[in-house]
Amino acid sequence: MAEFTLPDLPYDYAALEPHISGRIMELHHDKHHATYVKGANTALEQLAEARDKGDFANINKLEKDLAFNVGGVNNHSIFWTNLTPDYADPAGSAKDLLDGEFGGLENFKKQFSAAALGIQGSGWAVLGRDNATGNVSTFQLYDQQGNVPFGVTPLLMLDMWEHAFYLDYVNVKADYVNAFWNIVNWANVAERIDAAKA
Ligand SMILES: [Fe+2]
After folding, report:
1. Which candidate among 28, 62, 187, 193 keeps its CA 20 to 30 Å from the CA of 80?
2. Long-range contact list for 10-15, CB < 8 A, 24+ apart?
3. H helical segments located in 7-147
4. pLDDT tens, 30-47?
């Protein structure tokens, strides 16, 4: 089975300042994301071991560990590329989607921010596209793996775990979400929309 690896950040740790500090980016990537990679590989190993032994007493715990950690790996990999130090307004498919489905960028920001700020506990705000219908919506992803149905492709994700903002914004989540809008990589979102439609 393929091992998970930690992808490099596509920019320097401090590149997103003043919106997200270099210290947070370093900890978030090198410690948190790395821990999910390790956890995902450990869960895979333990599941293989359970299969070898025919011992499935811990199968539910192992499968939850796998889902949580693979979620952590994939969510962060998407998140890093959803951000950029070189902000540009939505264009192409991203602009079309925001205008056509959400009534424009400003309305979309309100909906997505409400989803982000309403998360109880740890989770993510997600803009996702249903593969079967092409419908798009915002979602609250609980922890790393809950509350979003299969078949939804993530286009834009915002990490609302405390580790993502607390050093910079303490408990003022709204300031973090407002800062996020200055570093969204709309070109990456457009690429994800095009890939999802292809
Ligand atoms: Fe995170």
Report:
1. 62
2. 10/80, 10/81, 11/83, 11/84, 11/85, 15/85
3. 22-27, 34-53, 59-82, 92-102, 105-117
4. 999 999 999 999 999 999
- State the distance from the centre of ligand 1 to the C-alpha of 5, rounded, in angstroms: 16
* Residues having C-beta closer than 5 Å to ion ligand 1: 159, 161, 164
Centroid of ligand 1 to alpha carbon of 33 (angstroms):
7
The full length of the chain comes to 198
**Could you tell me the distance, in angstroms and rounded to a whole number, from the CA of residue 51 to the centre of ligand 1?**
31
| CB neighbour list of residue 98: distance below 8 Å, 6 or more residues apart | 90, 104, 105, 108
Q: Which residues pair with 159 in a beta bridge?
A: 124
**Threshold 0.70, pTM exceeds:** yes
CA 55 to ligand 1 centroid distance, Å: 33
> Domain locations in the chain?
21-81, 92-197
Query: What is the Cα–Cα distance from 174 to 180, expressed in whole angstroms?
Result: 10
Which CATH code for domain 21-81?
Answer: 1.10.287.990
User: If you measure from the C-alpha of residue 95 to the centroid of ligand 1, how many angstroms do you get, rounded to a whole number?
Assistant: 27
The tokens describing 116, both together, are 């982000």
pLDDT tens digits along 48-72: 999 999 999 999 999 999 999 999 9
Contact 80, 156 (CB under 8 A): no
Q: How much distance in Å is there from the Cα of 2 to the middle of ligand 1?
A: 23
